[in-house]
Amino acid sequence: MHKTVNRKYKHMKNPTPTNQTGVLALILALYKGALEHGLTIGLNHITAAILLALRVAAVTARDVYETAKLAMSDRRITYNEAYEAAREFVFLARDILKPIFGKQYNQRWDITGFVGSLRVPDNVEELLVLVETIHGFLSANPTLEMGNITAAKAQLVFDALSNARSAIDSQKTVLSNLMTDRDAKFEALRKAVRDLINELDTLIDPMDARWLSFGLNKPGAEETPDAVVGVIATLIGPTAAALKWPAAARGSFYHVYQRVQGVDAEFVLVGSPADLDFNLENLPTNKSIDIVVAAVNDGGEGPFSEAVTIVTH
User: Fold this and answer.
1) CA-to-CA distance for 133 and 4, rounded, in angstroms?
2) CB 305 within 8 A of CB 294
3) DSSP assignment of 157-197, as one string?
4) pLDDT band at 4 (very low <50, low <70, confident <90, very high)
5) Per-residue b/e over 187-214, b at no fewer than 16 CB within 10 Å?
6) How many CB atoms lie within 10 A of CB 282?
7) Phi and psi torsions of 244, nearest 5°
8) Torsion of CA 167, 171, 174, 178, to 10 degrees
9) Residue pLDDT, tens place only, 245-278
10) DSSP secondary structure string, 217-231?
11) Phi first, then psi: what are they for 259, rounded to 5°?
12) Which of 4, 12, 53, 244 could form a disulfide bond with 277, CB atoms 3.0-4.6 angstroms apart?
């Protein structure tokens, strides 16, 4: 058994990702570490098989939820089409009835479903009631049917909109249940991460290199520095620049990187000063060059600073 640094410090070194992508990636690293070292270390609580099973369950739950979201999107398209068709039907019905009941609202319109005004409602519930009433009116007065404005058409429009709305309401319940299941599966993954870290804490030394095989930091290593903030780059010649930056917390020295736009795919290390300034010389001419700085200590390299760009002549 090995006593480690306090738990608060350890978990600051090996935090559990909060987003799904992060936890899935970490579980893969933990799985590979457990396959490689689980037997020799003596893992028995969170094994490679358990990690894999939990990950498969989470991925499956996520994919089922995403598929249900696509189904909801399709149902919304169907609903919108039915909604617009119902409004169009009502507009046309109103127009063919105007010669009979008048161009302005009066109480004679009430029998058709237009009560209080000739406005076509936006609200789906009100729209359904209006289509239903028009259906009843045309059924009782078939001689007033014209073209596609019939009782039969009103019934089709009503059914399409009513069914589309019900399909969306039903899918909302499905999505809610699937989201709950997905979130529970991912919480089980996060718990497995925490439990495995705790188990490793009892089995290997805080500075054991095998922590790295699990995609984890060594709990006993010095915490990496904060990001460098406020890098300033100033041209001091056609192909030279002077850099300076404030000290970063826990930084012992710094890495300076540059990336020539259109030339370098990644940032290239060009210096490791201990001071808070650095000169870049012999830069390529007529190029835009991105520069970042990272603080370093025995625990490793901190995050990159925000990139600054200089343009040489």
Assistant:
1) 76
2) yes
3) HHHHHHHHHHHHHHHHHHHHHHHHHHHHHHHHHHHHHHHHH
4) very low
5) eebbebbeebbbbbbebbebebebbebb
6) 6
7) -155, 155
8) 160
9) 999 999 999 999 999 999 999 999 999 999 999 9
10) --TTSPPPPPPP---
11) -140, 115
12) 244
Lateral strand order in the sheet of 277-280 = 232-237, 240-244, 277-280
Write the CA distances from 74 to 58, 66, 128, 161, 177, integer angstroms. 25, 13, 21, 14, 19
Antiparallel, parallel or unpaired: β 253-260 and 300-301: unpaired
Helices (H), the chain: 7-13, 20-41, 48-101, 124-140, 151-203, 210-213
Residues with Cβ within 8 Å of 223's Cβ and at least 6 positions away in sequence, in order, are: 9, 12, 13, 250, 299
Amino acid (1-letter code) at residue 232: I
CA distances from 253 to 13, 209, 230, 249, 259 (A): 20, 23, 16, 11, 20
Distance CA 9, CA 23 (A): 20
Q: What domains lie within the chain, and their CATH numbers?
A: 1-220 (no CATH), 232-311 (2.60.40.10)
Tell whether the model's pLDDT for residue 139 goes beyond 60: yes
Q: What is the torsion angle, in degrees rounded to the nearest 10, for the CA atoms of residue 14, residue 15, residue 18 and residue 21?
A: -10
**pLDDT at position 3, please?**
40
Q: What is the amino acid identity at position 217? A: N
Closest C-alpha to 196, from 294, 63, 50, 25? 50
Q: What is the separation of C-alpha 217 from the centre of its chain, rounded to a whole number of angstroms?
A: 26
Question: What band does 300 get if pLDDT is binned at 50, 70 and 90?
Answer: confident
